[in-house]
Each structure stands twice: as C-alpha cells, then as structure tokens.
Amino acid sequence: MINMSHILGLPGPFIKYSSLPLHDHCGYQVAINMLLLSRRPGKYSNEYTQYGTIRAYRSTFSNFSRTTAITNSTNWSLGDFNGNYHRLVQDDAGSFYFKRFMEGMKARMGEISKPNLALSLPLLLELVEFTERKISDSDDYADKHRWLVFLSYTVFSYVISLRGPEGFLLDLAGLNRYWDHSSNYIVIALLGRIKGEHHDLAHLIPCTNLTSSGINVKNILRRLLDEKARFGLSIGPAISDSNGKLYSAKSIDDMLHEALTSIFQNDSTLFPIQIDKEEKIYTNYQCFRSFRRTSDTRAIEEGVSTTDINIVNRWKTVEDAKGKKPSRSMHLHYAQLELLVAPFLRYTSKM
Questions:
Q1: Considering the entire predicted model, what is its pTM?
Q2: d(CA 203, CA 187)
Q3: What pLDDT score does 93 carry?
C-alpha cells in the first residue's frame, strides 16, 4: 500500500497522528490480570483456568468504572427512533484494543463445557426405588421426612421439567389449596405470579396422576402433604426440612450423590460408559440440570410435540422476562394458560 501511494507521490495512509497517553487508557492492567489468572489451575484443568471464569475480571472492572464520578458526571447517550437509549461511558475495558484482546483470548483458549448428564429411565426408576427403601427402612421421623422431600423434589422436577432453582419453588400453601383427592389430575403450585393470567400467587401446573413409566405422582404429593402436616407445616416452601427451612441445592445434591453412589456399587451398568468410577458421579449428576435434561430427553424420545413442550415451559418465559413482556409465538401469547390442561397432561403422562 505504501509503494502504491509512492507511485502517486503520496507518503502512504499509515500516519501516526500522536503518541499514546502515559496512563492506562485501554485496560492493559485488566488484560494482564486476566492473563495471569488464566495460568492458574482451574476447575477442569490443572494447567489453566477457563475463559468463562477469567472474563469475570472484565465485568468486575466495568461495573466499578461505571459507578465512578467521571462516568456519571455527564449524561451523554445515543437514542434511536424507537426510543432506545445507549449510555456513553468512560470504560477502559470498553476500548477497541480490549475488545480485540477478548476476542483473541476466547478464540485461542476455547471453552470446555461439562453439562450435567441426564438419567436414563431405568436409572431414574432405580433412584425412585432406592429413595422409597430409604423412607421405609428409616426409624427416624426426621430422616424419613428428609428422604420423602428429596423424592418429591426428584419426581416433580422430572415430571414437569424443572431446573434446580425452579424445583425449590414448590409452594405448600398452593399445593394444599389445590389438592383434590378425587380429581383425575393434580395441580403443582410453584411460587410466582403470572400477571394477567390469574389472581393466584403461584404458577399452577396440571400434572397427570400416574406417568407412563409407572411413577405415581399423586401418591407422592399426598404423602408429602401428610408428612408436612405431621410437623405442623401447611405454608412455606415444600422442599424444606421438618422445621420449614428451605433446603439448599447442596443438601439435595448430597442426597442425590449418596443414592447414585449406592446404586453404582450395586449395578454400574445403569450408568453411561464414561461413568466408570464413583468420583465422576459428583461432577456429572447434580440437581441443577440433571432432572431437567432427563425430562427433555424423555419428551423427545416419547414424541411429545414441540407445542406441548413450549406450553409446559411457558411459565418460565414469564419469570425470565423479569417484569417485561415475555417473547413467545403469537398463538401462545393469546392462549389463556389456565384453560390449557390437556397439553400439560399429555406431557407429564409421557414421563
């Protein structure tokens, strides 16, 4: 390009207009910190820490810089014709240099993803049977209560496709309010309100009494409500101890790992081939996504329609919207959720 410019008697387009400032104006220190952190042992490797972890340094610095006086002393912004505004901030980590640095780091490091594994149907049923034995064999009422709550969490999370945090939304008041022993289906209440759908303070999800795999969901719900009543609990979180205190994800994971480890010792063929030792159970099976993946896998295997899957997951789009209008297809937007029972029963019956 310089030689081509010389043909025309021009010096070339590459002109250094001025020297760079002496202070850190492009986020060099943050970039150096990220590089140093990447050389430390991480969760999945003893040689380096993943990009997904070290990028938090940029978020930390950006959150700090956007609260400083120099950033908030002006209110400059860009507005479009739709009324959307974008703030102009002085953020060293927002420089073009730092953008290219992040892109290069991500491209060179890559990312390792180890999502929770789904349970096969035989393994899930064996987990249910194991838990039932723990309930019947225990002489301690608190221990019986603990394993019954775990069984309820496992079955409800699987049958209505809940992720880990969603399973803890099971609401005792709502479960008691809509319990009907004579109905041909049960109603599972999850704490939260859908604006415009109904006047309840819970997401109400119809669920079959008995799944095609033989899980008696209604019987488990009845036993859970009776057990909670034994300890004088009729309101509050259903996934709780005998004092009504909400269980943590770690507590559920500990029970899950205890059960799966015992099952593995008795029959390791129920697990996929990559689970060749007990230690791998702890990293591959967790309440956060294992039951949701098990449900989704079963739904696809049983040929559940995409429409039914989307309807079952509709309440989650409202929660994810965080007060905004949820984004979904037009026919789902205009459908009245509390009148849709058959899609929920079709989905849950296939479990």
A1: 0.74
A2: 10
A3: 87
In the chain, what are the domains? 16-109 (no CATH), 121-349 (1.10.443)
Burial class (CB in 10 A: 0-12, 13-18, 19+), 338: exposed
More confident residue, 88 or 256: 256
Find the radius of gyration of the CA atoms of the chain. 27
pLDDT value for 301? 92
Spatial contact of 287 and 150, defined as CB atoms under 8 Å apart: no
**Residue 191's beta-bridge partner residues?**
202
Residue 335: what pLDDT? 44
Amino acid letter at 214? G
Lowest mean pLDDT among 3-7, 101-105, 174-178, 193-197: 193-197
Instruction: Write out 237-264 in H/E/C secondary structure.
Output: ECCECCCCCECCHHHHHHHHHHHHHHHH
Spatial CA neighbour of 57 closest among 92, 89, 88, 109:
92
CB 97 within 8 A of CB 105: no
Count CB-CB contacts under 10 A for residue 71. 15
- Residue 30, strand partner residues: none
pLDDT score, position 157: 93
